[in-house]
Amino acid sequence: MANRVRRTFGDDAGVQIIDDDIFRWINDAQLQISVDNEELLETVATSDIVAGQADYTTPSNMNTLRSLMYNNLRLRSLSFAEFNEYIDGFRNPAGSPNSYGNGTPEVFMVYGGVITLFPTPDTSLVGGLRIYYAKHPPSVGNLADGLGVPDRYHNSVVEYCLKMAYEMDENFDAANYKKGEFENQIMKLKNQEKTTSTEYYPRITVLPEDSTYDEGGWLYG
Protein backbone atom coordinates (compact mmCIF):
# COMPACT_ATOMS: atom_id res chain seq x y z
CA MET A 1 0.00 0.00 0.00
CA ALA A 2 2.74 2.49 0.99
CA ASN A 3 4.84 1.69 -2.11
CA ARG A 4 1.79 2.02 -4.34
CA VAL A 5 1.01 5.46 -2.95
CA ARG A 6 4.61 6.68 -3.32
CA ARG A 7 4.99 5.24 -6.83
CA THR A 8 1.74 6.80 -8.07
CA PHE A 9 2.67 10.12 -6.50
CA GLY A 10 6.14 9.93 -8.05
CA ASP A 11 8.16 9.71 -4.83
CA ASP A 12 9.63 6.18 -4.87
CA ALA A 13 12.54 7.31 -2.70
CA GLY A 14 10.24 8.55 0.05
CA VAL A 15 11.71 12.05 0.04
CA GLN A 16 8.40 13.91 0.36
CA ILE A 17 6.19 11.21 1.83
CA ILE A 18 7.30 9.20 4.86
CA ASP A 19 5.70 6.03 6.21
CA ASP A 20 4.16 7.81 9.19
CA ASP A 21 2.30 10.14 6.82
CA ILE A 22 0.88 7.18 4.90
CA PHE A 23 -0.11 5.29 8.06
CA ARG A 24 -1.99 8.34 9.32
CA TRP A 25 -3.77 8.78 5.98
CA ILE A 26 -4.66 5.08 5.80
CA ASN A 27 -6.20 5.22 9.26
CA ASP A 28 -8.14 8.38 8.41
CA ALA A 29 -9.42 6.75 5.22
CA GLN A 30 -10.49 3.58 7.01
CA LEU A 31 -12.29 5.57 9.68
CA GLN A 32 -14.13 7.62 7.06
CA ILE A 33 -15.11 4.44 5.21
CA SER A 34 -16.47 2.82 8.38
CA VAL A 35 -18.45 5.94 9.28
CA ASP A 36 -19.93 6.27 5.78
CA ASN A 37 -20.81 2.55 5.61
CA GLU A 38 -22.08 1.40 9.00
CA GLU A 39 -22.96 -2.08 7.70
CA LEU A 40 -19.38 -2.84 6.67
CA LEU A 41 -17.77 -4.26 9.82
CA GLU A 42 -20.59 -5.93 11.73
CA THR A 43 -19.61 -8.12 14.66
CA VAL A 44 -20.88 -9.61 17.94
CA ALA A 45 -19.41 -9.32 21.44
CA THR A 46 -20.52 -10.88 24.70
CA SER A 47 -20.37 -9.64 28.28
CA ASP A 48 -20.97 -11.47 31.55
CA ILE A 49 -24.02 -10.36 33.51
CA VAL A 50 -23.50 -9.65 37.21
CA ALA A 51 -26.51 -9.80 39.50
CA GLY A 52 -27.30 -6.34 40.87
CA GLN A 53 -25.24 -4.55 38.18
CA ALA A 54 -27.12 -2.42 35.66
CA ASP A 55 -24.21 -0.74 33.79
CA TYR A 56 -21.93 -2.39 31.21
CA THR A 57 -19.21 -0.80 29.08
CA THR A 58 -19.66 -0.72 25.31
CA PRO A 59 -16.91 -2.30 23.15
CA SER A 60 -14.02 0.13 22.69
CA ASN A 61 -14.14 -0.22 18.89
CA MET A 62 -17.90 0.21 18.55
CA ASN A 63 -19.11 2.47 15.76
CA THR A 64 -22.87 1.78 15.71
CA LEU A 65 -24.90 -0.37 18.09
CA ARG A 66 -27.37 -2.63 16.27
CA SER A 67 -29.09 -4.65 18.97
CA LEU A 68 -28.76 -6.15 22.46
CA MET A 69 -29.78 -9.62 23.59
CA TYR A 70 -30.11 -10.54 27.27
CA ASN A 71 -30.12 -14.30 27.82
CA ASN A 72 -31.36 -14.70 24.21
CA LEU A 73 -34.13 -12.13 24.65
CA ARG A 74 -34.06 -8.93 22.59
CA LEU A 75 -33.97 -5.74 24.64
CA ARG A 76 -35.78 -2.57 23.56
CA SER A 77 -33.61 0.49 22.97
CA LEU A 78 -34.66 3.78 24.55
CA SER A 79 -33.17 7.27 24.38
CA PHE A 80 -31.87 8.91 27.56
CA ALA A 81 -35.14 10.79 28.10
CA GLU A 82 -37.33 7.81 27.21
CA PHE A 83 -35.38 5.54 29.55
CA ASN A 84 -35.75 7.84 32.55
CA GLU A 85 -39.42 8.36 31.85
CA TYR A 86 -39.91 4.60 31.51
CA ILE A 87 -38.26 3.64 34.81
CA ASP A 88 -40.14 6.32 36.77
CA GLY A 89 -43.22 4.16 36.41
CA PHE A 90 -41.56 1.30 38.30
CA ARG A 91 -40.62 2.97 41.57
CA ASN A 92 -41.27 0.96 44.74
CA PRO A 93 -42.57 2.68 47.87
CA ALA A 94 -40.21 5.15 49.50
CA GLY A 95 -37.80 3.54 51.93
CA SER A 96 -37.39 0.31 49.93
CA PRO A 97 -33.77 -0.95 49.71
CA ASN A 98 -33.98 -0.64 45.93
CA SER A 99 -36.51 1.90 44.75
CA TYR A 100 -36.79 0.22 41.33
CA GLY A 101 -36.26 -3.46 42.14
CA ASN A 102 -34.30 -6.10 40.22
CA GLY A 103 -35.51 -8.60 37.66
CA THR A 104 -35.14 -9.59 34.02
CA PRO A 105 -34.02 -6.62 31.86
CA GLU A 106 -36.46 -5.49 29.18
CA VAL A 107 -35.06 -2.14 27.99
CA PHE A 108 -31.71 -0.37 27.79
CA MET A 109 -30.09 2.96 26.99
CA VAL A 110 -26.55 3.90 25.94
CA TYR A 111 -25.01 7.06 27.39
CA GLY A 112 -21.35 8.05 27.59
CA GLY A 113 -20.15 4.65 26.39
CA VAL A 114 -22.17 2.81 29.04
CA ILE A 115 -25.07 0.42 28.46
CA THR A 116 -27.67 0.60 31.25
CA LEU A 117 -30.17 -2.25 31.60
CA PHE A 118 -33.57 -2.07 33.27
CA PRO A 119 -34.68 -3.74 35.40
CA THR A 120 -31.27 -4.35 36.96
CA PRO A 121 -30.42 -8.04 36.42
CA ASP A 122 -31.19 -10.28 39.38
CA THR A 123 -29.13 -13.23 38.08
CA SER A 124 -25.47 -13.60 37.12
CA LEU A 125 -24.99 -15.07 33.64
CA VAL A 126 -21.75 -15.96 31.83
CA GLY A 127 -21.92 -14.34 28.40
CA GLY A 128 -25.48 -13.32 29.15
CA LEU A 129 -25.32 -10.06 27.19
CA ARG A 130 -24.79 -10.22 23.42
CA ILE A 131 -23.90 -6.95 21.71
CA TYR A 132 -24.51 -6.69 17.97
CA TYR A 133 -22.64 -3.75 16.52
CA ALA A 134 -20.63 -2.30 13.65
CA LYS A 135 -17.02 -1.64 14.62
CA HIS A 136 -14.30 0.79 13.65
CA PRO A 137 -11.38 -0.81 11.77
CA PRO A 138 -8.11 -1.41 13.65
CA SER A 139 -5.34 1.12 13.04
CA VAL A 140 -2.35 0.51 10.80
CA GLY A 141 0.99 1.23 12.49
CA ASN A 142 3.62 -0.46 10.33
CA LEU A 143 4.18 -1.91 6.86
CA ALA A 144 3.31 -5.42 8.02
CA ASP A 145 -0.19 -4.49 9.21
CA GLY A 146 -3.08 -5.43 6.99
CA LEU A 147 -5.97 -3.05 6.37
CA GLY A 148 -9.04 -3.34 8.54
CA VAL A 149 -11.48 -2.84 5.64
CA PRO A 150 -12.23 -5.47 2.94
CA ASP A 151 -9.99 -5.78 -0.12
CA ARG A 152 -12.57 -4.09 -2.36
CA TYR A 153 -11.93 -0.84 -0.46
CA HIS A 154 -8.14 -0.86 -0.87
CA ASN A 155 -8.16 1.26 -4.02
CA SER A 156 -10.33 3.81 -2.23
CA VAL A 157 -7.76 4.00 0.57
CA VAL A 158 -5.05 4.65 -2.02
CA GLU A 159 -7.14 7.46 -3.55
CA TYR A 160 -7.53 9.07 -0.12
CA CYS A 161 -3.78 8.85 0.54
CA LEU A 162 -3.02 10.44 -2.83
CA LYS A 163 -5.48 13.23 -2.08
CA MET A 164 -3.60 14.00 1.11
CA ALA A 165 -0.23 13.75 -0.65
CA TYR A 166 -1.29 16.22 -3.34
CA GLU A 167 -2.62 18.60 -0.68
CA MET A 168 0.74 18.45 1.08
CA ASP A 169 2.38 19.21 -2.29
CA GLU A 170 -0.07 22.13 -2.76
CA ASN A 171 -1.38 20.55 -5.96
CA PHE A 172 -4.97 21.33 -5.09
CA ASP A 173 -6.46 20.48 -8.49
CA ALA A 174 -5.09 16.94 -8.26
CA ALA A 175 -6.15 16.75 -4.60
CA ASN A 176 -9.73 17.71 -5.44
CA TYR A 177 -9.81 15.14 -8.25
CA LYS A 178 -8.64 12.38 -5.90
CA LYS A 179 -11.15 13.54 -3.31
CA GLY A 180 -13.92 13.07 -5.85
CA GLU A 181 -12.59 9.66 -6.84
CA PHE A 182 -12.52 8.54 -3.20
CA GLU A 183 -16.06 9.74 -2.49
CA ASN A 184 -17.47 8.23 -5.71
CA GLN A 185 -15.88 4.86 -5.02
CA ILE A 186 -17.14 4.79 -1.44
CA MET A 187 -20.67 5.61 -2.56
CA LYS A 188 -20.58 2.92 -5.25
CA LEU A 189 -19.29 0.29 -2.85
CA LYS A 190 -21.77 1.32 -0.18
CA ASN A 191 -24.64 0.80 -2.62
CA GLN A 192 -23.31 -2.67 -3.35
CA GLU A 193 -23.22 -3.70 0.29
CA LYS A 194 -26.05 -5.72 1.74
CA THR A 195 -28.98 -3.84 3.25
CA THR A 196 -28.58 -3.15 6.97
CA SER A 197 -30.01 -5.97 9.08
CA THR A 198 -33.15 -4.79 10.80
CA GLU A 199 -35.49 -6.38 13.28
CA TYR A 200 -38.63 -5.29 11.44
CA TYR A 201 -39.61 -5.28 7.78
CA PRO A 202 -40.59 -1.92 6.32
CA ARG A 203 -44.29 -1.33 5.62
CA ILE A 204 -45.21 -1.15 1.97
CA THR A 205 -47.79 1.60 1.33
CA VAL A 206 -49.76 1.77 -1.92
CA LEU A 207 -50.10 5.35 -3.17
CA PRO A 208 -52.89 6.73 -5.39
CA GLU A 209 -50.43 7.33 -8.22
CA ASP A 210 -49.52 3.65 -8.33
CA SER A 211 -50.91 1.88 -11.39
CA THR A 212 -52.53 -0.84 -9.25
CA TYR A 213 -54.64 1.62 -7.23
CA ASP A 214 -58.08 2.57 -8.53
CA GLU A 215 -60.26 5.55 -7.62
CA GLY A 216 -62.14 3.55 -5.02
CA GLY A 217 -58.97 2.71 -3.17
CA TRP A 218 -58.98 -0.96 -4.23
CA LEU A 219 -56.05 -2.88 -5.58
CA TYR A 220 -56.35 -4.69 -8.85
CA GLY A 221 -53.98 -7.05 -10.64
Please outline what is shown here.
By secondary structure, the chain is an alpha+beta fold.
Structure description:
Strands 1-10-3-4 form a four-stranded antiparallel β-sheet, with no helix packed on it. Strands 2-8-7-5 form a four-stranded mixed β-sheet, covered by helices on one side. A two-stranded parallel ribbon has the order 6-9. By secondary structure, it is an alpha+beta fold. Mean pLDDT is 83; it is low at 196-213 and 215-221. α1 (2-9) packs across α4, α2 packs across α4 (154-168) and α4 packs antiparallel against α5. β7 (107-111) and β8 form a beta hairpin. It has two domains: 2-39 and 136-192, no CATH class; 42-135, no CATH class. It has helices spanning 2-9, 19-36, 80-87, 154-168, 172-192, and strands at residues 42-49, 55-57, 62-70, 73-74, 76-77, 102-103, 107-111, 114-118, 120-121, 125-135.
Tell me the layout of helices and strands.
Layout lengths: L1 H8 L9 H18 L5 E8 L5 E3 L4 E9 L2 E2 L1 E2 L2 H8 L14 E2 L3 E5 L2 E5 L1 E2 L3 E11 L18 H15 L3 H21 L29
Parallel strand pairs: 5-7, 6-9
Antiparallel strand pairs: 1-10, 2-8, 3-4, 3-10, 7-8
Helix pairs in contact: 1-4, 2-4, 4-5
Terminal CA distance: 55 Å
Rg estimate, integer Å? 25 Å
Proportion of β residues?
15-25%
Shape: elongated
Calculate the mean pLDDT score and round it: 83
Order of helices and strands: HHEEEEEHEEEEEHH
Spans of at least 5 consecutive residues whose pLDDT stays below 50 are 196-213, 215-221
How many individual helices? 5
Strand-pairing-aware structural class:
alpha+beta
| Sheet with the most strands, sense and barrel status | 4 strands, antiparallel
The tally of beta strands, per DSSP, is 10
Helix content: 25-40%
Q: Order the strands across the largest sheet as they lie in space.
A: 1-10-3-4
- The protein's oligomeric status is single chain
